[in-house]
């Protein structure tokens, strides 16, 4: 067992650090559910049911509090991280996750160092990747990139962000942080007083992390009293997300006035940077939070990062800051999916994976 699991932040950084043990206390991990991921790709949140998200998050909590390195779960496996768009957290947290499990990495930190510079297609690159590794983690500026590489790819693929499309393992990291903060959201909640008001400062229809977060949030609909979306766009959802929200039966409201709703929110998810067309754009960065904002005393803030000035660093030292826990926990979420996709659950300590 690792030390520092009593609520102190083992990363030594600021903010709220909920104890991961609370997520698995008296709730065994169901490895039969995780085994269903063997050999699969992760391209969209839509492929998940709530029970799978819960088991991945519980497994990540286990990995966060357990010294797993001595079991070498990814020994002999080669993971290709192919990033055709900038990243701090996603590429490095995947690579850290792999190396801490004794796997090996081939990394493309910038797509222009590949044959893409000569006009090589993603489908041709996919054919090559089949011979070089066991799993590929890809980020790309184009929403269609996942489809293109999968034309010839026969390895499992993890979509690490496709343009303004999706970022499914980010959504897993987001909900891992929320579930550590409020483990009761695992349950089917029946009392309104136990539900949360969820605020989204951003444009789900144009931002991949917000899109994936919203889709995953709908799996936890019994825990959500209402969803409030604060965006500068007239239609921040688009037709598909609007239909999904309507069919979830969660009451939702859209506004462009943050002050109207801020003091009512329990969880606030914010983001402002998105890759749209051929460049990064900043949407919704006029909706700012800082330590003086009119937040509920126990409200928590999530942000996939990188941030601009919409999220003031003076919030970092407060207990509203769940975004550092969210970012740090991504390593364990990524370990959980890598071990499952690569069918290495049998490498866990015998008393755990029965
Ligand atoms: N959250 C996230 O996707 O961050 P990066 O862009 O740094 O990978």
Relative strand content = 15-25%
Report the biggest beta sheet as strand number plus sense, adding barrel if it closes.
Answer: 5 strands, parallel
**Which H/E pattern describes the elements?**
HHHEHEHEHEHEHEHEEEEEH
The total tally of domains equals: 2
The ligands found in this model are: phosphoric acid mono(formamide)ester
- The CATH first-level class of the largest domain comes to Alpha Beta
* Residues in helices, as a percent range: 25-40%
Strand order across the largest sheet: 7-6-5-8-11
Envelope shape:
globular
β-strand number: 11
CATH architecture of the largest domain: 3-Layer(aba) Sandwich
For CATH, the homologous superfamily of the largest domain is named as Aspartate/ornithine carbamoyltransferase
Q: Name the poorly predicted regions.
A: none
CATH topology of the largest domain: Rossmann fold
Mean pLDDT: 94
């Amino acid at each position: 067992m690792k030390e520092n699991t009593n609520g102190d932040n083992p990363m030594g950084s600021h903010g709220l650090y909920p104890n991961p043990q609370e997520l698995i206390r008296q709730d065994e991990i169901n490895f039969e559910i995780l085994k269903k991921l063997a050999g699969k790709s992760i391209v969209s949140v839509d492929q998940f049911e709530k029970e799978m998200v819960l088991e991945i998050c519980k497994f990540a909590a286990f990995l966060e509090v357990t010294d797993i390195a001595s079991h070498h779960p990814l020994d002999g496996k080669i993971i290709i991280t192919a990033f055709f768009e900038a990243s701090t957290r996603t590429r490095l947290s995947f690579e850290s996750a792999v190396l801490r499990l004794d796997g090996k990495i081939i990394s493309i930190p910038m797509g222009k160092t590949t044959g893409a510079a000569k006009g090589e297609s993603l489908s041709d690159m996919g054919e090559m990747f089949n011979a070089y590794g066991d799993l590929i983690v890809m980020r790309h500026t184009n929403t269609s990139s996942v489809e293109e590489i999968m034309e010839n790819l026969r390895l499992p693929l993890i979509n690490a962000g496709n343009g303004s499309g999706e970022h499914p393992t980010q959504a897993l990291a987001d909900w891992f942080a929320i579930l550590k903060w409020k483990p009761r959201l695992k349950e089917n909640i029946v009392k309104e007083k136990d539900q949360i008001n969820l605020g989204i400062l951003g444009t789900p229809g144009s931002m991949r992390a917000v899109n994936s977060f919203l889709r995953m949030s709908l799996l936890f609909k019994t825990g959500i009293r209402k969803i409030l979306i604060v965006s500068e766009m007239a239609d921040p959802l688009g037709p598909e997300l609007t239909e999904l929200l309507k069919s979830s039966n969660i009451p939702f409201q859209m506004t462009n006035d943050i002050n109207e709703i801020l003091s009512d929110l329990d969880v606030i998810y914010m983001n402002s940077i998105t890759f749209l067309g051929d460049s990064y754009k900043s949407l919704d960065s006029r909706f700012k939070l800082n330590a003086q904002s009119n937040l509920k005393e126990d409200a928590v803030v999530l942000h996939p990062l990188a941030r601009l000035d919409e999220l003031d660093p003076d919030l970092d030292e407060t207990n509203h800051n769940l975004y550092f826990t969210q970012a740090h926990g991504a390593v364990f979420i990524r370990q959980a999916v890598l071990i499952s996709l690569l069918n290495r659950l049998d490498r866990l300590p015998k008393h755990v994976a029965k």
